[in-house]
Amino acid sequence: MITELSPSYDLELAELIRVNLKKHHLDIPGTVYFDDNLNHLSDFYLAEPSKRSYFIMTDDDGRLVGGIGLAELEFIEDCCELQKLYLSDDVKGAGLSYKLISLVEDKAKELGYKRMYLETHDNLAAAIHVYEKAGFKEIDKPAGVVHATMNRFFIKELG
Q1: Separation of CA 1 from chain center
Q2: Average pLDDT over residues 43-66
């Protein structure tokens, strides 16, 4: 089941994100791993629902197995950022990333965004493959990037 993030899933989501980053040796400064609000993401996403949103995916037992978000991006016009796409290992490879990306793209269009940006890292080769297959095109590093460790940048026009 896919639903919007609620505070009851905050800590489980933070753990899912940290486990994924650690597995890929990205539990280092300059990544979301050390963001102050990681344990309370619902505070951020629910604060301005006209500009941002986060969706979680749960299995039949209500266990969190994935999530994806979007938020306004200040440094590219009419653009939002795809944020924090993570899945638990036991559901990877089943095409769920594409389902979540499609969902968040639809939400972005509903909110009036014309393009979607994302940043990632070479260590996340499978994610890069998914992004490229989903139609994202690599761009040079834009000014204004917050997570300094990220070294790959993509954008997609939301037609």
Answers
A1: 18
A2: 95
Q: Which residue, among 130, 119, 125, has the nearest Cα to 94 in the 3D structure?
A: 130
Q: According to the model, what pLDDT value does residue 120 have? A: 93
What is residue 98's three-state secondary structure?
helix
pTM: 0.92
The whole-angstrom separation of Cα 54 and Cα 57 is 10
Tokens 């795809």 belong to residue: 82
Domain at 2-113: CATH architecture: 3-Layer(aba) Sandwich (3.40)
| Cβ 124 vs Cβ 22: under 8 Å | no
Q: Say what the pLDDT of residue 59 is.
A: 94
From residue 95, alpha-carbon distances to 85, 92, 127, 134, 138 in Å are: 13, 7, 12, 11, 21
Measure the CA–CA gap between 47 and 70, rounded to whole angstroms.
Answer: 13
| Nearest one of 150, 147, 151 to 36, comparing CA atoms | 147
CB under 8 Å to 83, separation ≥6 — which residues?
54, 68, 69, 70, 71, 118
